[in-house]
Design a protein that fits this description.
The complex is a heterodimer of chains A (234) and B (619). Chain A has 234 residues and is mainly beta. Chain A is built from two helices and 13 strands. Helices cover 9% and strands 62% of the residues of chain A. Chain A has a twelve-stranded antiparallel beta barrel. The longest helix of chain A has 13 residues. The two termini of chain A are 29 Å apart. Chain B has 619 residues and is mainly beta. Helix content of chain B is 11%, strand content 31%. Chain B has seven helices and 32 strands. Classes of the chains: A mainly beta (234), B mainly beta (619). At the A-B interface, β4 and β9 of A face α1, α2 and α4 of B.
Chain lengths: 234, 619
Amino acid sequence: MKKYITVLACSLFLSSPAWSGEMIDDPLLSMVIVDQLEVQVGDGDDPLVWEAEGWLGYDLNKLWLKTDGEYLDGRIEDVEVQALYSRAIAPFWDVQIGWRGDLRPQPERNWLALGVKGLAPYFFDVDAAVFIGESGQTAARLQAEYEIMFTRKLILVPDVEVNFHGRDDEELGIGSGLSDIEAGLRLRYEIRREFAPYVGITWKHLYGDTADFAEAEGEDRDDVRFVIGLRAWF
Amino acid sequence: MNIAQIFEQLDTLHMERRRFVKGIAAGTALLGLGGISTRLHAAEEIPANPGMPVLQGKKFTLSMAPQQVNFTGKVRTATAVNGSVPGPILRWREGDRVSLKVTNHLAESSSIHWHGIILPNAMDGVPGITFPGIEPGESYHYAFDVRQSGTYWYHSHSGFQEQTGLYGPIIIDPLEPEPFSYDRDYVVMLSDWSDENPNDLYAHLKKMAGYYNFAERTSADLIRDIKKKGLSRTVNDRSMWNIMRMSDRDISDVTGYTYTYLMNGQTPAAGWTGLFKKGEKVRLRIINGSAMSFFDVRIPGLKMRVVAADGQNIEPVTVDEFRIGVAETYDVIVEPESERAYAVFAQAIDRTGYALGTLTPDVSLRAEVPDFDPYPILTMTDMGMDMNNMAGMHDMKSMKGMKGMPEMDTMSGMKGMNHSGSTMAGMPMKTEQPMPMRGAAGTGSDTPVVHAKTEFGPHVDMRAMSPKYRLDDPGVGLRDNGRRVLTYADLRNLYPTPDSREPGREIQLHLTGNMARYMWSINGIKYADAKPIELTYGERVRITFVNDTMMNHPMHLHGMWSDLETGDGRRIPRKHTVVVQPGSKISYLVTADAMGGWAYHCHLLYHMLAMFRKVVVSK
């Protein structure tokens, strides 16, 4: 799978930058966005959780990296990484195709990822993808986010993520059908555009077999946590 | 205090620091040696803040070099001409042959373009089109006959050097006596300075197009709108913007968040000063040498008689205020009647800052600085929507049509409709006016607007459905402000139209882009991918611009005049830079009387890289 990333990366840079005399209208740029870097406080453990993404590329063609995960007691409990080729298909939409690796918890799962990311009418940030696993497992994920500007610097961000799976994956405690819904509400203050501390609350609910697996492990199907964190980009 | 008020107060708190970046009072690296010598009162001329040095004559030696400057309290390196930002005023005489030896002491390739000057192709100074550029350590010898008079300017045409200070004024004294009189003569050069590296600035815009815009609508605006208009009107009014994913608060790409606006290289805190004696006539040569900023200029307490536009004499028009696009020039004459100081107030179009100077009989007097006008809000007109249609249209069904932005073919039947009955706020038409007949030279185009196939795709986010000639529209933020504001409809050449031929053909160019991705193009094709526009030597051609974006674009054709069709074919004013208002249409005639390849582009520096064409004139 990782070979594909190399191939994707290479094909991306075959599209050379546009030269117009000495003016480059479309320079090679990169961006790193740490959307969430937060401590979650609730019943039980208080892990450090991150959700970050970044890109390298041009106006219409980019290499995207996405990661999220959880760090607790000196070790990474949970980590997912995606490496995607992203191509603009509409003024506000990109298609993204590539590799997703669920590296922790073990066993590792590799997926082919196929998604669309962009801005829907009414300014909803949307990232929707389907995933095909090595063993024939399938999954789908929908993420949406909205910014409510109380002021130009004090911004409330509701977001929601919904996950579906094609079949049970008992080893990882995942059930088929609707697996989980996670909704958050984060209030951030942009000290400057690139740097914003926030506080918030996040609620996660497990469904179907996923919930049953969790309960068998002694976990709740409902989890509410307070979060405090930092959003930054550069 | 309700929640809306709390939010508003919070916003005022954090914005205040940003909005009033006035720069520091002293410490620019100017080597100003003297003011512009007034032609009639040279001996009395000792202004407090003189502005740029003046070089006069036929032979000039110019040196482009790095220069330490300090406009904001931080030392930065500018790209200066002869150690000055802006560069020295070059004063030429019509009929002379001027010779300019320009040496590049910068670490990168450079150039100087003489903006608005009609000259042989090799003298135009555009790297990659008219010459290879001036390499570090090299010189280029410019020499050409001066065949015009008036107020112009020069600037680098390489990289982003224009943003970092490589620009300056040109004054050309006429052979014949001028058709107006004045006692004092001042250059007022407006520009925008940023402490940021322009490459970083461009990268910010690519990563987050709204990076510099702190005027987006907030919850406080929402609550106020609902209180004022009710919930359903508020939702309706916003639905089009929401569906299009655009902002009616998107006025400038780059704002006072990073810019300090300069007048003759002086920050508002330092303040350029021009002296006068009561009863004198003062000529102000206003030049917008900004990289990205439009200004609305007025002098509270004084009427301004506009006598020239882009260096060319026009039938004088008396106004309270005018908007000056990037690269435009206006000459105005004012007659201060009292012994008081007057503020020369040039507020940025987005009201995030201003350039400021003082006209005063006494250096110790200071004028009161006016308040900003309210933040301009774009209307349907600025999106190129048909106002007649919009007036009764508030249901979602008809809104749907907008999402797809139907091809203009379906709308062309509306051409010739008049605007009577439209009462939408923000409409510029004050009286019921019949639409003039179009087609003849000077009156504009009567051909239908057609969006090319290349305008569709991820690189273009909107197409004007019903772009209109809006010559008499002062523009967003100036409509119905109670002042007499100059519009293009006021511009009439003082002399008969030099080339009265009818245009042999018409070229329609659409200004296109994707705001969110910060991509710009013409007809959906960026410069790197575009073929040149071919003109035949000697032909008279009409160029019609359709602005399919919500930004103003100041379009500049090198080498030839842009004869702006303002309605009267007998008195067509000549311009070198024509502002195409958002969602509008405008035309001008060009006589292709200059052989060779010429640059043709939007003069907003960060649009220019892609919103650019080469024009080739051949036999």
